[in-house]
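Run folding on both entries below.
>entry_1
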Amino acid sequence: MRRSLLERRSVGVASRAVVALTILDFYWMYREAKMERYVMAPYVLGDENGFSTLEQSRLLMSSVCHRVYLSGSGEDRRVEVSATEFRALKEEAESLWGTTDLHGDFVPGLLNRKLPLVERQDVMRMD
């Protein structure tokens, strides 16, 4: 009796887990399809050293964050920044230039109120 009750419970739990994972998978497919509409570009930030972008390298259990200078007195420099500073710079960039939300919709920034339309050209090269 106990064994059959335990089996029924585990089948019920497994069924709910499969349903939950299927719903989650559909959500990620929906979001990915919406995100394909965008052409992603790095955020460009400026300070007294010049213009820079943000880079994050993720390793197994840690990540290394850099601010890479493109112009100005910091040209060709990679400055390592803390994870806290990286998050703050990323939040600043998102508030200025915009970002996407959990549903894959564009959230405008202060400097980028509307997305520019760009025609996408898929080029296949055969060398």
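>entry_2
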Amino acid sequence: MSAVLSRIEADFSGLPVDLPSVADETITAHGMQFTAAAPYEPLVASIANQLQDDVIDNIGRTWPEVDGRPLFASAESGVACWCLDGKPWCAVGQLAGALAANAPDSAE
């Protein structure tokens, strides 16, 4: 469970959203409960999707984005990833680094 939380917290820390909590092998994210019995990568993607909805509600626009296009969490590839245009773009937990690497001033 701590690995799931670490990946989620890496991408959502500092955003206007309540981070998940853990009790008795259950993660609670904005009122939804996820159990440790769920497959790991789909669990990470499901929690990321739930929190993404909360961030979008709080900031009033899509989040995260790359070049004005939204990213959505999915585990269809076998790894929980932020997908751009339906294709894995970066793993959940690696968003800050991937966004920084994609920033216009980093293309030197």
